[in-house]
Amino acid sequence: MEDSERPVAPESTATRPRRRGRTALLIAGAAVLGVVAGTCVGYQVQADREPVPLPPLSQPVLPQATGPAPEPLSAAQDRRVRTDGDLRKLLLKRPAGTKEADWLPASDGWMDIAAYADTFTEPGATFSSLVSDEFRRAAVVGWEVGSSYSVEIRLVQFRHEDSLAAADSVSNLQDWAESEDGVESWNIPGTGDGMAYVHTPPDTKPGYEPMYRAEAHASRGDIAMEIWVYGDRRIPKKTIMDLAERQMERL
């Protein structure tokens, strides 16, 4: 077969990808240099500009107090000063015409922890509880009104470092009072949960005259107040309420 009669192979349509030659590298390098140069120019422009102040923070303008500062509380007004002082001075004064009680287990108006524990039916257990409750001190006053009735008022102070022992002590005594039969009770005004009680049936023991009783319990801060009134006849509500209200006004 002659060459002129041989079929001519068609040109291939497949092409190789172009290699990345030197020209492409130069273009890429120029682009990188352009970015770096642009960044440098941008920083230079910022450095040459005058600083622009930031916008102020949006905050409300608070009014300023005017006039002189308030005077500090006087010793008479500052309750902490009163209660950290002589606790006996906060007790009600013995009324004129009454007889000073000679049966109080106290010395010069003070009642130590042992003497106070002895006023309970289980002194040993009470002593341990008072130690746990951080008993600090107690002051007491008492008097006799003729042969009608006698009064005893105690102020028992706790340290109040780990618990609110004064309020707990009052709550415990109130529970005992309310557990008895034939008791009448009233809230002591201005004391929150302070209560006064009059026991209508007398306490009776063989060999003793019947003894009527009234009591009041309230607390303020770290001080628990106890009032006990005993007589040969029923104690009027007015008597125990008057004592309780006047004593709490001093705390």
UniProtKB/TrEMBL annotation:
Residues 1-20, 54-80 are annotated as: Disordered. The chain crosses the membrane at residues 24-45. Keywords: Membrane, Transmembrane, Transmembrane helix. It comes from the Bacteria. This is Uncharacterized protein. It comes from Streptomyces spinoverrucosus.
